[in-house]
Design a protein that fits this description.
By secondary structure, the chain is mostly helical. Helix content is about 75%, strand content about 0%. Helix 3 packs parallel to helix 6, helix 8 runs antiparallel to helix 11 and helix 10 packs antiparallel against helix 11.
Length: about 250
Amino acid sequence: MKTFWKAVLPVAVLLLLWQAACNMEIWSQYVLPSPQRVFQSFEAMLRDGTLFRHILVSLWRVLSGFSIAFVLAFLLGILAGVHPASAPFYKHIVEFMRNVPPLSLIALLILWFGIGETSKLIIIVLASFFPMFLNIKKGLAACDVKLLEVGRSLNFSETQLFLKIRLPNALPDILVGMRVGLGYSWRAIIGAEMIAASSGLGYLILDAQQMSRSDKVIVGIFVIGLVGFLCDRLFSYAIQKVLHGGVDDSWS
């Protein structure tokens, strides 16, 4: 119960301050709608199914882009972690792209791939790839040399060394990278759905802004944060079950 109240108290204080600001008319309802008006919009969008439709579309895009990014990050992470001598061939390209904001590529992506799903997925992939790649690379490269020597003394092949020693040793770093990457995927959804989307939570926010519906904008922001938080918690719970709580410190 103490943990529950510690979590609820800041939210309650924030809502009270929000309502007080509305009552004192510090800002107009056009700029800052009251919590009651936001809740009414939220309830109306739940009843007519609009919100669920946008959530499902965004969830599909996030999970698809995240999955593609993980596969690419895992393959390149294996190359970087197990064969560091190959780094000069791709290091500078990866570092360059890591510092280019995905949103800056929207114009080119539209020219190259049109306004379909491909452009949106690429934005999400670019946002979530790098934290996963860096963590996978770190985890595989940091494997204890003594463990590898023990494996070689047991006549393990390179495949066995990877599957039985390197991969289990790197698993906590890989999972932390996946968690960060999943969060970046949700952060990228607004940019991804700026590309001529007709559905999704990013589209919901942009459409509401164009219609001067700040209440719907706040609903969209709230739902993105809530769904992202729930995905993070579910992912954390599943990982702890699979690893029997072996990476508790990584998920605190």
